[in-house]
């Protein structure tokens, strides 16, 4: 069998590269442009990307040898999966690699809201000492509403239980056994929104979840409630969120993901009661290493037949 060739088009952890080198010739070109990729891809059996490189239909059609498109991470939004499937090309990813990391970031954002950490940090750096301005709340004893209890939502459950939180879950697709095993109360969305002190979102963006949280939903929430979104932009209606925050319908929000990324010109940027991060939910050394190793092993398995 001729040697397989793998193109690493976005930077991935070294461990993933060395795994692949055991079975294939590996070319690392993490600055490849879309034009260069169109030309180069014809020589490769597999391509590994993160989110920078777009594997479009045009790229797929220019790749007669291509057998695998691997995303060293979760979302395959940058891959034309339909075009790949039509050509019988496998699209693989590593959804389990980032679950703990995203869960930890979500909890970090909850704490940032509860203790006003971003504002307090800014204030101290401005030379102030405003102890009274930054009275916070404890997570202990509060009700956490988790929308979507899949891989990430489940990791949030385990960790927030240790904080002493009571947990409500809205997820129409999980079994009663899964809920019982996790020791959570499954409920409908309306009850979750009415009763939660913090709501955290862990569902995919689908036609069903687009603007799942909008004007009516914010009206159901407590005025003291916080909402956290580390899933996908578009699940929260950002215009409605802005109005809810401005009008005091809820107390605060933390977002890692946005309808437009970056959220240039968004009115949310003007508000003090929001904490924003630039889609870094999965950005830890451990998650990136695990993602690289998982996809490398899958490619090896396919190559070794
Ligand atoms: P998952 O598929 O394991 O879990 C999703 C859960 O949502 C499932 O239990 C499913 O039953 C539930 N669900 C689906 N539709 C629903 C609906 N309409 N209402 C309520 N529940 C619904 O996914 P995951 O790995 O836990 O990831 C969750 C989200 O996190 C995804 O959108 C993913 O893209 C996002 N994510 C974000 C980052 C980041 O960098 N911020 C990183 C990784 C994943």
Overview of this protein structure:
- The chain is α/β, with parallel strands linked by helices and 305 residues long.
- Helices cover 36% and strands 16% of the residues.
- The chain contains 12 helices and 12 strands.
- The protein has helices at residues 14-21, 34-40, 57-61, 81-86, 99-114, 117-125, 151-161, 176-182, 189-195, 215-220, 238-246, 285-303; strands at residues 4-8, 24-28, 46-49, 68-71, 90-92, 143-147, 166-170, 185-186, 198-201, 226-229, 252-255, 274-276.
- A 7-stranded parallel β-sheet has the order 8-7-6-9-10-11-12, sandwiched between helices. A 5-stranded parallel β-sheet has the order 2-1-3-4-5.
- α5 (99-114) crosses α7.
- Nicotinamide-adenine-dinucleotide binds at residues 74-75, 95, 98-99, 102, 147-153, 170-174, 202-205, 208-209, 230-232, 256-257, 279, 281-282.
| Number of DSSP-assigned strands | 12
Structural class, from secondary structure content?
A: alpha/beta
User: What is Rg?
Assistant: 22 Å
Q: Could you describe the largest sheet, including whether it forms a barrel?
A: 7 strands, parallel
| Sequence stretches where pLDDT stays below 50 over 5 or more residues | none
**How much strand?**
15-25%
Could you give the order of strands across the largest sheet?
8-7-6-9-10-11-12
Query: How far apart are the termini?
Result: 11 Å
From the spread of the alpha carbons, the general shape counts as elongated
Mean pLDDT across the residues is 97
Give the proportion of residues in helices.
25-40%
The helix-strand sequence is: EHEHEHEHEHHEHEHEHEHEHEEH
Number of separate helices: 12
Bound ligands, named by name, code or SMILES: nicotinamide-adenine-dinucleotide
